[in-house]
Design brief:
4-stranded parallel β-sheet, 21% strand, single chain
């Protein structure tokens, strides 16, 4: 019960700071029904607006876009949900997040279908449709990384179980759902029977499975690029002896001390080769040796931004800070400010 209460308080805090983020008087003055710049707040169709407010960070990202438009003095009009169907020949600013009016079994595909329809009416999308294709679409992501010479772990796209007989990778391996995110759809396998079972499970609902060389590391990085520069970076350390995913809920410690700065230019160049104005790279280094070339595990135009914690939380698992909700140094307060800063860079 206390956990549910804390989650509710944190959610209310996030909504409060998202609302406070926007200069509302200036937004009212700049709102123009004839403007050719559109802020599309799409919600979470087919789910309700209430669910969007209650469960997703879309509201935080939308508030960041609105603040960025206002701070730059850009006349705009606000368009909600499927009212986008009436928009023509405009610049449409939106958040890459669930919107699935077609009811696609893969929500990210539903968003891309909707975006293609919007672009087909003569609209320019920010972020671009090409960028949105990277979101929760790991087959496409790996194909683009290979074409752009972005280093990734040795990876094979498997479309039939029979292809495993010719697989040139040896266990341990990672098996991923093309639509995987966080810890969903990612399995480590230690032998061939486990590999076949994991791939079969993915292929039972998808047209392809991703099989990837396992890299035994205890740290990885999140590098965020926006408008031609690294705008945010952090190192995530697993303090346990055994390998695990570096997620806050697993007790991972986040470090913001700049140990990764030497690689800033490399990540900016990779984003440029991939055609991404903004993207977050999840990357690692073999043997956790940060002098070696980085290996990209994932890159996406939609990402969660984790602000640097205050001094009291520096040496604690990041989940402790992520659970805070009260005060200007609370996680939601710092997170909204960070989102607004980076989305402002994208619109520059």
């Amino acid at each position: 019960a206390m956990t549910k209460v804390r989650r509710l308080l944190r959610r209310l805090s996030l909504l409060f700071w998202s609302v406070r983020l926007v200069p509302w008087c200036s937004a009212y003055r700049l709102h123009d029904r004839s403007a050719t710049v559109v802020l599309w707040v799409h919600g979470r169709k087919p789910d309700s607006w209430l669910r969007s407010l209650a469960h997703e960070d879309t509201v935080l990202m939308d508030a960041g876009w609105l603040r960025a438009l206002v701070r730059r003095g850009v006349p705009f009009r606000l368009v909600l949900g499927d009212s986008i169907d009436r928009v023509r020949d405009s610049t449409v600013v939106y958040t890459v997040h669930p919107y699935n009016p077609s009811g696609s079994p893969i929500p990210s595909d539903g968003l891309r279908q909707a975006l293609a329809t919007v672009a087909g009416r003569g609209n320019r999308l920010v972020p671009t449709l090409e960028a949105a294709r990277f979101w929760e679409n790991k087959v496409y992501m790996h194909e683009r990384c290979d074409a752009a010479d972005v280093p990734t772990p040795p990876t094979r796209i498997v479309r039939e179980i029979a292809e495993l007989h010719y697989l040139d990778l040896q266990p341990p391996l990672m098996v991923k759902d093309p639509w995987s995110y966080g810890s969903f759809g990612i399995v480590r396998v230690e032998d061939r029977p486990a590999l076949e079972a994991a791939v079969a499970a993915v292929l039972s609902t998808r047209t392809a499975a991703i099989v990837q060389e396992f890299i035994d590391i205890r740290a990885d990085a999140r590098i965020t690029v926006a408008a031609g520069r690294v705008s945010h970076s952090l190192l995530r350390r697993n303090l346990a002896d055994d390998w695990s995913l570096t997620l806050a809920r697993y007790g991972t410690v986040y470090e913001f001390d700049g140990v990764l700065q030497r690689w800033n230019d490399a990540f900016v160049e990779m984003a440029d080769r991939l055609g991404l104005a903004t993207a977050a790279f999840d990357a690692c280094w073999k043997g956790d040796d940060f002098t070696t070339e980085p290996i990209v595990l994932e890159v996406s135009p939609a990402y969660q931004l984790n602000p640097e914690p205050p001094e009291a939380f520096r040496d604690r698992p990041y989940r402790d800070y992520a659970a805070t909700w009260w005060g200007r140094d609370a996680h939601p307060a710092r997170q909204t400010a960070l989102v607004a800063r980076i989305e402002g860079l994208v619109l520059d």
